[in-house]
Each structure stands twice: as structure tokens, then as C-alpha cells.
Amino acid sequence: MELTRRQLIQATAAGPAAAFAANDRIQVGIIGCGARSHELMKALMLHPGAQITRVCDAYKGRVERAAERTKGSPAADWKSILGDKSIDAVVIASPDHWHKTHVIEALRAGKDVYCEKPLTYTAEEGLEIIRTAKETGKIVQVGSQGVSGQAQNKAREMIRGGKLGKITMIRAAYNRNTASGAWIYPIPPDASASTCNWAEFQGPAKKRPFSLERFFRWRCYTDYSGGIATDLFVHLCTTIHYLMDAKMPARVMAMGELYRWKESRDVPDTLNAILEYPEGFTVNLSSTFNNQSSAESGFQFLGTEGTITLGSPAIRYEPENAVEDNRWIVESWPSRLEAQYYQDAKVKAAELPETRAPKLSSAGEEFRQTGLDSTYSHFGNWLNALRTRKAFWEDALNGHRAAACAHMVNLSVREKRLVEWDFQAENIRRT
Ligand SMILES: NC(=O)c1ccc[n+]([C@@H]2O[C@H](COP(=O)([O-])OP(=O)(O)OC[C@H]3O[C@@H](n4cnc5c(N)ncnc54)[C@H](O)[C@@H]3O)[C@@H](O)[C@H]2O)c1
Question: Are 275 and 282 a contacting pair, CB within 8 Å?
Fold first, then answer.
């Protein structure tokens, strides 16, 4: 979403970035200048406290576009960005199989980090990142930007204020029915072995013959991605943990199938998961790439006193209006007992339409996110953390946990079993 000039002025007048003087700008290097990265660069460039000075990518066309967009200079590769002493911090938007290496090497090179979600490709990687962040004292923020948005913060406030009563069930989904929604992105016409550095793309992944499909549609392959779980469910889990003040599900059970897009991938296009949290609620996550009649994405927080439906950009709150009604039960009793039942004052107050009090004011409420887009605000929180040296909520630990939920889902699908979390080890329980 493009920000208007007015939104920018409002934001910079009030936002944390305002604290940086023009000559005191944080120098930022970009590792990976793909589709998401260009959105990130646009949002970061609106913060006067930061300046993008160097950019790198494994495909030449994207370095060219990033340099044009930011006026930053192209770097040969990510190692030259990390070796550049003038760079304070890096934004990492490479494919998922690279995140751990890029994050850890950046921290060791003394840089603060903004890393796109999912923080990890395996759960073990998260523990290594958390350790390195502690050792180096550098900031890590993960890029599920929704938690910095107005809508999620409003929902969080409502939940914490008790407006929903006790929440025992949450439903969340991502549904799509297009090739682009199923990650079959167009490949740039000049892409070839001379414009795409295949070795640089593959990095720590299993070695394969050169493939433009793998290079540009890496989400479809388990060598680089965990598919729907790490790409989409990770956003859902981040939000649920933030809104519910929850750590991790104790148990996860999931099923996934590839029904339709079989020629293009080795990950499921339909995924259903159940996550059980010790904080006292259960989550249903679901996604299909074969129908989008319901909203593309959204959440329902179901509480004893009300429901929040959280979509983009609106929140809808509906109070619960459930009333007791035992008529069909007592109508099977002897007539005199039925009549007696309705003489009871408690029953009159609770069950009879003519005598019961209206349960709640039944009007719902709607809240629409106005103003700033979440990615812009998420960078505001990052820059604030860099200045105050206090990480925002979505740090290495919380990034690790959200990604680990996705890894638990995939493990359950792969091994057709219930997967448990070891809260002491902050890792998936070994069987
Ligand atoms: N927060 C969000 O809403 C959101 C949205 C989309 C993507 N993402 C995340 O952003 C990341 C990038 O996704 P994308 O959609 O932009 O993919 P993409 O394929 O468009 O971009 C990845 C880029 O990284 C480059 N690259 C690969 N290996 C590299 C290396 N070793 N060094 C430097 N560059 C390298 C590729 O050439 C490519 O241009 C992923 O982790 C994805 O999950 C987040």
C-alpha cells in the first residue's frame, strides 16, 4: 500500500523516527531485493531516520531496480554488505533457506537485523539465532508486520480488556484460487544462468540443476521453504501469540495434501492444522489454494462474551447473544411438570422471551484501520528499537516461536502424528 504525503507527514511528526537527526541516519544494507524487499524499501525510505546505502541480490535485474529505487550502491554479494563498516543494520529478505545464515552472519558482523518471516527454515536454527542475538547484543526484529498495525493493536486491547470474555477457540485462514496466489509468479524475460547466480541462490540448500522455476518460485519447493505453513500460517501464529499473550501450542496435529497444482511443487496446496495452547484455547488454521469464496485471509477470536473478526483492514466485534431455551426438552415431560418449570423465577428470567432481560446491547462495533500501513509502522518499531536498544515484541524468541509452529505443522503432516513442544528446551519435543 502506497502512503500518501499527508500520512507520511503525520507519521514522521509523531513517530519514533523523528528522533534521528538528518546527519545521524541509520545506514542500512539490503540483502535480497525481491518482490517483498521492494515493498520494504519503499516503506523504509519514508522514515527519515534511515538511509539505504547498499543493496545486493542473486539476480541482476533486481539489484538494478533496487539501486534505481533507493540510490543505494549495488554490492557484489551479501558478504560485502556485512564487511562494510559504514553499514549499521541490514534488512534480510532472501528466501527462507538463507535466513539463518544471513541473520547469524549479520549479527556476528555487528549489524542489527530486520529479517522477513519466517525467521527460520528449521526449529533448531531459531535456537542458534536467539543465542547469537544474546551474545552480540544486537537487535533482531522479524517481519510479520501485522502486529505493528493499528487493527491488531486495537483487537489486542479489546481482548486484554476482557471484552470477549474467555476465548477458547480461534479460527484463522488463508484462501486463494489463482496461479499467483499459488506462488506461480512470472519469471523476468531476461532471467538466465548469466543474470541469475544459481550458486548464490542455492547456498545451504540441496544442490540441484539450474532451474528458473526454483529460483523465482522457491516457495513451491521443500528445499527452500515450508510451503503454506511457513509462508502463511507463520503470520497467523505471530498475531495469535501477540493478541493472546501466548507462548506456544503444547500439541499440534495437521493434515496437508497436494490436490491441484501438482506439476509446479512438492508442498501441499491444502492444509489444516489444530494447535492446542496451555493458556486455555485451541486454534484451527486452514488454507486452500483452490477456492477463495471466503475472505482471502482472516481471524475469528471466539469468546464467551463476544467475537472479534479480524480481517484486513477492519475489525468487527459482535457481542454474544446466546439465551437459554429448554422448551423442546420440557415439552417431553408430563404437562404438569412442564407448567411448573415455567413458574420458576430463574427460568422466567432466563428463558421466557416476555420476561427475560435483553442479554446485552446487541449492536456490534466496527473499527477500520486508517492511516499508516503496518510495514511502515513495523519499521518505526525497528528504528525505535535500534535507538533505545530495546527490541520490539517480535524479536528473535517470538520470531522463532511463530516459525516453530509452522515447523510443527509440517512435521505432523510428514509423519502423520501429533507433535509436541518442549517448553524448557524451546524446541520441538523429540520422540
Ligand atoms: N511480511 C510479508 O508480508 C511478506 C510478504 C512476502 C514475502 N515475505 C518474505 O520475504 C522473503 C522474500 O520473499 P519474496 O516474495 O520477496 O521472494 P523473491 O524470490 O521475490 O525474493 C527473494 C530474493 O532473494 C534473492 N536471493 C536469493 N539468494 C540470495 C543470496 N544468497 N543473497 C542475496 N539475494 C539472494 C533472490 O534473487 C530474490 O530476488 C521471504 O522470506 C518471504 O517469506 C514476507
Answer: yes
